[in-house]
Design a protein that fits this description.
The protein has helices spanning 53-68, 85-105, 128-152, 180-189, 207-210; strands at 2-10, 28-32, 35-42, 73-75, 81-82, 109-118, 157-164, 168-176, 196-204. By secondary structure, it is α+β, with helices and mostly antiparallel strands. It folds into two domains: 2-105, no CATH class; 109-210, Alpha-Beta Plaits (2-Layer Sandwich), CATH 3.30.70. The relative contact order is 0.16.
C-alpha cells in the first residue's frame, strides 16, 4: 500500500473535518510520538501521478491549506510517496525529534512573502555592457526598496529573509498569525517608488525559516 505524505503537525493539533486528498483519496490522520501525520493511501501510487499532474498538485496544496488554517504545519513537497508503511515509519522515526522541535519553535507563526520587481517597460539596450549596467542599477534599487520595507515593518515581524530572484527580490517575513492583517496594512501604506511593484502574499507555512539561512 503506497502512502502520500502531506504534512506533519503537533500531536495536539485541533480536530480537522474530513478532507479529500489527491485523486479523491481520503486524508487520514495518525499520531506518532509528538506528531500528527496527514496522509493518503492507495494500492497504486500512479493514480496520484496521472497525466493531469497539475490537478494533482492543486489537490495536494488544497489539503495543506485546509490543515494550515487551524494549526502550524511542516508541509512536504508533492509528491512525497512511500511505497510501504515501513518506509514512512522509518522516515518519521528518524526525524520526529527534528520535526517536533520545528513545530514548537514556529507554533503560531506564519510566513508572508513579498515579490519586488521593476514595472518599467524594458527598453532595448544599445550594447551588452549597457544592458548589464541597467540591470545592476535596477537590482540595487530593488534591494534598497527591500531594506526600506524591512525597516518600516520591523515592529511586526520576528525574522526577515531576502534573496534575489529572476524578476528582482523575494523577501519573507516571519509574523505572528494574529498580526498578518497588521503586516499587510504596513505593506499597503508603504511608499513604492515609481517603476517598481511589490506583491504581498500569505500567510504561508514558515518553510523559508525552517531551513538554515
Amino acid at each position: 500500500m503506497a502512502t502520500l505524505l502531506y504534512c506533519v503537525a503537533k500531536r495536539d493539533a485541533p480536530v480537522i473535518e474530513a478532507l479529500t486528498g489527491v485523486g479523491g483519496d481520503a486524508v487520514a490522520r495518525s499520531e506518532m510520538s509528538k506528531l500528527s501525520v496527514f496522509t493518503s493511501s492507495s494500492p497504486d501510487s500512479t493514480g496520484w501521478l496521472r497525466p493531469q499532474l497539475q490537478t494533482s498538485a492543486l489537490e495536494f496544496h488544497h489539503v495543506l491549506r485546509e490543515i494550515f488554517k487551524v494549526t502550524t504545519i511542516i508541509p512536504f513537497r508533492f509528491p512525497t510517496i512511500f511505497e510501504t508503511d515501513e518506509q514512512l515509519i522509518q522516515r518519521l522515526q528518524e526525524r520526529s525529534a527534528e520535526y517536533a522541535g520545528l513545530l514548537e519553535k514556529f507554533s503560531g507563526l506564519v510566513q508572508m512573502e513579498m515579490r519586488l520587481t521593476s514595472s518599467d517597460p524594458k527598453e532595448p539596450a544599445r550594447s551588452g555592457t549597457q544592458y548589464l549596467k541597467k540591470l545592476q542599477e535596477t537590482m540595487r534599487s530593488i534591494e534598497t526598496l527591500a531594506k526600506t520595507l524591512r525597516t518600516s515593518s520591523a515592529p511586526v515581524w520576528r525574522d526577515w529573509r531576502a534573496r534575489p530572484s529572476k524578476e528582482g527580490v523575494r523577501a519573507f517575513a516571519l509574523v505572528e498569525r494574529s498580526r498578518t492583517a497588521e503586516f499587510e496594512n504596513l505593506m499597503a501604506r508603504a511608499t513604492i517608488p515609481h517603476g517598481f511593484s511589490v506583491r504581498v502574499s500569505g500567510p504561508w507555512p514558515a518553510t523559508e525559516f525552517m531551513e538554515p539561512s
